[in-house]
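FORM 7B - TANDEM STRUCTURE REPORT

SECTION 1: FIRST PROTEIN
SEQUENCE AND TOKENS:
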Amino acid sequence: MGELDRGGGRVSAPRGTVRAVAAPSDTAVDPADAAALAARLEPLHSMIYFVPETGEELAQTGITRDRDRYFAQRAAPMGAVGPGVVAATFFNFNPALVARSVPMVWAQATPPDVVNARLRAADAALRRLLGDQVSSRAVTAAAELVRRACDGATGEDRPLYAAHADLPWPEEPHLALWHGVTLLREHRGDAHLHALLSAGLSGIEALVTHTATGKGFTVAFAQRSRGWSPEQWGDASGALAERGLLDRDGTLTETGVALRAEIEEHTTRMSLAPWRHLGAEGTARLREVSAPLTKAVLPAFAVDGVFAPRSSRR
């Protein structure tokens, strides 16, 4: 395992049992398959925002507020950045909310402290959620495949991905898998921001239209967690209605549905490099071996009032 102590040093980077593998020649990956697999894998990363182990580990560094924990753990690979950088790269948060946590949080814990605490939390949470599977061949195979996919990703104009990609790979397979899925998630996430901006959506407008799909957060949780008041939400909804994207009752119009579909297609087009590098055979194999692992972590998302009924995490 990489370094998981509570010192200020960064996690060590031995490759150990998980090594990069040469790219295959079959690059004809169906974009829809790639998008579906990205969605399937994401819970293996995003469970870190819901499991109690994260709060326990970050509390040891002095970070005790939930919002501080979120901003700190996701931004830490970028260093002790200010609120403008965090608001820009996280996109759909109210900048005023960000400024109440950043940069003050760096007075409580240094970015390397946070990186190490987050990795310890991932280790403990995955051991609990995966149980005996944590040391299984499926985890090792998935870690190797994810790392191979990541070898095809690049950091141009992807600040959050690039920051996380600068971190060393953990040695143990379950942590390498978590780290690799984190990279793939941030790689796609940066592309998603490009797609949203190309569609002419602001951060709050992106959030409003996504909740209107019924597949993400509930409106109440989205407003509260992202720091938008009901009045700001109403103003954004009104502007979207004027553009013909929302009905007055807050549901997506046909134009709005089409725009959200194009945003997802744009995001996928800009996120295909890892999957092309992995190839169709490797992508299919990763889909197979990751299915029981994703299923095992889904209980972490059983939080009332967070996800809409149609969300894939319910």
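SECTION 2: SECOND PROTEIN
SEQUENCE AND TOKENS:
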Amino acid sequence: MKKRKNILQTFLIFLIFTILLIPANIKHSYGLITINVQTDKQTYGVGELIQVNGTIYYGTPLTTLVGIEICDKYDHTITIRTLVSGETISGNWKLEVLNVTPCDANLNPKQQFNLGDYAYFKIDIKNNGDSEETITTTLAIYFADGTAYTASPAYQGPISPKTTYTTLVAVPIPTNAPLGIGTAYVNIYTNRPKNGGYPYCPEKAANFTIIGSGTPLPYMETAPKTTRGIFKLVIKTMKTDNFLGNYTVYATAFYYNEQGQDTAQFKLILRGDVNVDGKVNMKDIILVIGKFGTKNGDPNWQPIYDLNNDDKVDMKDIIIAIANFGNTGYYLP
């Protein structure tokens, strides 16, 4: 009888010990954030559409905020955004962007800006928490066709608890900007995603209109809604003054006191610049025409003129050179 009692006690102790271990085992096996980011191609020409795709899991597909930053190898940021890995997200945010208001230099609301003007954006952010926070607030400007024009800090530093902070940011509108509806996106991060920072809250957006002589372009949605665990961003680079070479996509997220991050790389080239002078003009088009009809294996074959990499120079290559006419970029070490 005593022996049976000891066996029963041993079994109960083992059972209790096993039950106590189950939460720890589940957290260890499934609790860590897994985030993956990639681009749809490895190489893009200046002005081409870049598609960033990613997934995020916390054991199962996760709906959360994902910080995205894209930088060239010289640490210039071409865009910085906060995406949602799912359709919608809500919460009681410790930090939040209250308003983004297009305006003039005197804070008067203004919706339309001419080419060559300065557009101003009044940004109101709030610390809803009970402690001071050091934050990085950013402003990213997109044109109607999805071109990521600029990304810059709007405010970096401390913000006191229960305080609303207002700042004004001026953005020059290029004389060659696409006409139509542009968008300003404001985000708050613990730090830049490149430096491991993550979003405090969803981004806040405001539309404005660039006017001038010509036809406005259709508006392109750059962060389409997705299903749970998936995030997407589609953008274009500017057609002029790009830094050519390697770019890095940084993706970060924070969930239940755990942080995940991942990177992806792609290369930006100046397609059609066959004389490698940093611009696509009539000289390049004439050079491609001069190689018309040549193919791989010919004595005078030069692959730099084969712009679509199909081992021959034909009308397709000439059309590519013409389509990229006026694009520019910088070849730097």
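SECTION 3: OBSERVATIONS ON SECOND PROTEIN
The longest strand covers residues 148-159.
The helical segments are 2-30, 282-290, 315-323.

SECTION 4: SIGNATURE
Preparer initials: ____
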